[in-house]
Amino acid sequence: AKKKKKPKLLNKLDKTIKAELDAAERLRKKGQVEEALRAFEALVSQYPLSPRARYGKAQAEDDLAEKMRSNEMLQKAISTYDEVVHLPNVPSDLIKLSLKREADRQQFLGRMRSSLLTLQKLVHLFPSDTSFKNDLGVAYLLIGDNSKAKKVYEEVLSLAPNDGFAKVHYGFILKAENKIAESIPYLKEGLESGDPGTDDGRFYFHLGDALQRMGDKEAYRWYELGYQRGHFASVWQRSLYNVKGLKAQPWWTAKETGYTELVKSLEKNWKLIRDEGLAVMDKRSSLFLPEDENLREKGDWSQFTLWQQGRKNENACKSVPKTCALLERFPEATGCRRGQIKYSIMHPGTHVWPHTGPTNCRLRMHLGLVIPKEGCRIRCAQENRTWEEGKVLIFDDSFEHEVWQDAAASRLIFIVDVWHPELTAQERRTLPAI
């Protein structure tokens, strides 16, 4: 590999005050942040046109912001990084460092639009540097503008056809557009490149998923690799938003969950829950919305949601008041901000791809309401089960699962997500919703 050239950070003026700059920088490197900031401030007031002094001041403010956990101080640092660029005769390496750090800190503060503008400036100033284009692509993805991100990665790949970072991100975007077969070579070659920024659980997740949908068993080789790299809890359990150390098994009994009251209540009242659900289907079938996560290979699958991310859908509950009243007694379900409570109807001829839920923080209860005699089954990890009317099945949907509905009639179940029983009260209160 080429030795990385040391960046040139000093212009003519700065070379004349190198000793003072070095002394201030030594303080900063030693972690004497306040002293370093004072030293750089003194240099800036004495040499207002010194880019290196100004950059040092920005770095010291940046360090201090971290030490004080102060967003206000970080905002100061961002402004100072920006000032560097507007001075005369700034070495281009220093412009790159200042703007890159400015964009990074803006993202850290959640100022996605500002960081986008900063990165656009970098790309404009250094059009041949593909790493800035790569960062710009990420900035577009962060604000949800996939089509602009896609254009950026197409530019990178036309300039640098082997850029692994651009490849995984381009593949990721193609996969999101449901261009499954096209996404595979980009995700695969990007991961194989080993380039910085490619070793991310999402890319293993989506490559494996794309291969599975193409019926390619090679998926498990990538899941295995993702597991070895520490992105997945196991080859079968591939959720990406996890709390470490929670008991992990595909199938659970009511007793193991500790939520026996909830299970008893669901099983005792299953006919009431069924009848309210069927009435909604008859009268207002428009309330059942198609499953929208693109998990079906074929067929019809609709859902009628009562709670989502711990929030009650008051309107939906008007249609099934007794069912909602029954659930209000169980905060482990209604308060589960990483799950849902919903009716799920699956029509004959439906196959749901093998897929994995987003988090290991919940368990999923399925109460059978209308279950055809045969043709319906669910696999979680390596074990198949079937539903029974009036009975609850409990599984951990962070493990790979797959569903077949080959019966002659429709299948109706009631789904209740609950917090993983090992989560503390504190974790239940503070984990961000999913």
Automatic annotation (TrEMBL):
Keywords of the record: TPR repeat
KW Protein transport (keyword) present: no
All residue ranges annotated as the Aspartyl/asparaginy/proline hydroxylase domain in the record: 267-421
GO molecular function term, any single one: peptidyl-aspartic acid 3-dioxygenase activity
TPR repeat start-end pairs: 130-163
Alphabetical list of InterPro entries matching this protein: Asp/Arg/Pro-Hydrxlase, ASPH, IPNS-like_sf, TPR-like_helical_dom_sf, TPR_rpt
PROSITE patterns the record matches: TPR
GO cellular component entries: endoplasmic reticulum
Protein's UniProt keywords contain rRNA-binding: no
Family the UniProt entry places it in: Belongs to the aspartyl/asparaginyl beta-hydroxylase family.
Protein name, entry field: ASPH hydroxylase
